[in-house]
């Protein structure tokens, strides 16, 4: 048999092994060669002939790289290596392609958005700001206030609901657990604009209320609830059954066992649930446009008058379309992304200790 | 010796999980101030049985039961009996040590009192007494504030015993409390058990025949034949079960021929 | 002996004391709020939408063409928008799936551990980018680039009907909208896929490789068949999400009202129910708002169906999620 010998039992790769160092030298040089050549060739063709970058990428680089992958596979593992080579090239190419696009979102937000940011941008509001006003005046302070108030009120309503729902699903043997789960899944697919229409119809069109911050908060509840209850459910499920049983065996009523033992053990997971829920809704635009409308001034009152929020501020400025307003839109985008990044980091920090503890066991 | 120690008795306990009949007609008597060992090969239902004695059994979905568990003559499964009250009187120690990881050593000891809503003005006293009775006071008295999970496995298990003792139960159920522990820790727990029986009734499930011989006053031998529910083959004074068993299967088991 | 069997009781963990009853009741009440919210959404939308459905006819409303409040009687039909929603969501999914699966495959089966961990964090973070930010990026940064791609596609493949182009600019076409949307849903699909990949029995894969299978045939014959159900479910979830998306495509899609653009995806003529609501809502009259409510109802019902299908498939493929 000329094919390489296959080990009888698969061996776990040691953590600090260097798999590439075990690659045969011939294969390694081939890999280097076929990784460099297509790149050089397609860059050359792109630069000299002036074809579109995207054409050069898909019509020159990708075929060459596929060929290279196939060759490398063949050199390393014979005929059956060809498909492997192609697979690896396709995987790398597609992953890199979309990651670059997504990172371009992040990069453009920070590169462009940061130019708009300045202290007064965070503290001033949109009063006396016209389409042609430049960035030296006015800001999104009012929108920041609005977003914080609206999201806070949503969180206030949703977190108890979501955590209690998770309690129902994990801690009780209630009969409707399947139904509830189905409903939450249905809710997680609720289009956000429909959530806005719902609250508009219930509160505003019916004359119960005019545009106000709390209406926006209510519209965000069905969007946040599925995230909070799902993550909370998963974290409660991770609490070992022995702990619950230990508490119950001591003669604890279920509610005390939950609040004194289960909940503290799941605390970081619950915090993560809250943070991910906030991240889910902090950028929601459509439901707020239909419920809180807008306001150029700073409104501290959730229960009367229209309000601004970061996403609707972004949206409206982008709709204006003047240079100044688009710059403000980027500033708002950067602000939102900073908030998301902060929340996201907090969520990771909150869920980290649990992982460490689990790893120790 | 106190005469108020509870007398525990089961009548024709049958247990099901869903449609599966796992335990058949277990009728045992656990007199006060005695240690009763439940022995038998794995899967014979002895752990399931001990969980019926303080109504932990019903925490498993689809659990079914018939028969009676009588504490001083009244059935703990009677209508209207709150399992919470049952478990206050009948404590339990599990196979795997399960101290509460978010609490310190001291907090763990009085956790049962707090969990059952009792005021603990003299908590320091309770902590000391309970830890002394679980013979671990000297080891931990200087670090009561440390997290409970910083203890070794054997210490964690003794902490769980102390936690149960703080509740001053009449009956203590122990489900293979030493199976995860080293011989040293096992010996200390056995000593604790022997001291505790002055003040309570103890039922212990054990895999370890020598342990049953060392600490128990009476022994019940459980067995489940293939596909059949588990049942008690023989029940009597430990001395008799281990030296002059009347059933061949008991004889084979206690002499280590199987299981 | 039949006596004991006759008295078998099914035991249940149930609350006895008052505080526990309150605890269980509160949890149940909160859980039922999910049902109540869904019902409220349907009730309030239907109640507002009813006149529009009655005047236009449900079927004509959902499938007909034309949206004009200046003629008498007013015409409100969302056929082009409903079809456009499905078309764009489907295209976005087709674009996103290969990339999302590539990333998941890379993370689980190729990348060394440290790289996999950071890639997971990155993808999760990208999944949290709000859609309004994607919309901004799509309009200002990506749109002009994608117009170039669309032109190239048309030049090279214009003879294929779907790449034909006969009206206006290349901007604001269903093609560009689905690219933006596709990029947005990649993280969603890839995190579901990654989860399914990593829950797979690694032993099976190692065994396959030990038996001499190579990467490609392991993927084709072992990994994909075992995880297909879950991946399809994840794709449907993302499809549902794409259908409900509003602001990410609002700025990069031009809506047409009087005809259905069946397949000319490079023309700046698209449809999208959510964008319709957003663009008409500001200046809408009472009756037009009722029609927009009706559009919301239709969109909700369609997404409900897709999501129900998705969760059915996911649950069947991931039994460990239902304990």
Folded structure, characterized:
The complex is a heterotrimer of chains A (361), B (259) and C (323). Chain A is mainly α and 361 residues long. Chain A has helices at 25-49, 53-77, 81-116, 119-123, 141-171, 177-188, 192-204, 213-238, 241-249, 254-265, 267-281, 286-291, 310-320, 323-360. Chain A is built from 14 helices and no strands. Mean pLDDT of chain A is 87; it is low at 1-22 and 354-361. Chain B has 259 residues and is of the alpha/beta class. Chain B is 34% helix and 24% strand. In chain B, strands 7-8-9-4-10-11 form a six-stranded mixed beta sheet, with helices on both faces. In chain B, strands 1, 2, 3, 5 and 6 form a five-stranded antiparallel beta sheet that branches. In chain B, helix 3 (105-115) packs across helix 4 (123-133), helix 3 runs parallel beside helix 6 and helix 4 (123-133) crosses helix 6 (153-165). The longest helix of chain B has 14 residues, at 183-196. Chain B is globular, with a radius of gyration of 18 Å. By secondary structure, chain C is mostly helical. Chain C is built from twelve helices and three strands, in the order αβααββααααααααα. Chain C has helices spanning 2-6, 18-56, 58-63, 79-110, 113-127, 131-157, 174-199, 202-210, 215-244, 247-250, 273-281, 286-317; strands at 9-10, 67-68, 75-76. Chain C has a two-stranded antiparallel sheet with strand order 2-3. In chain C, a hairpin with a 6-residue loop joins strand 2 and strand 3. In chain C, 50% of the residues are buried. The mean pLDDT of chain C is 89. Chains A and C meet through helix 2, helix 3, helix 5, helix 6 and helix 7 of A and helix 2, helix 4, helix 5, helix 6 and helix 7 of C.
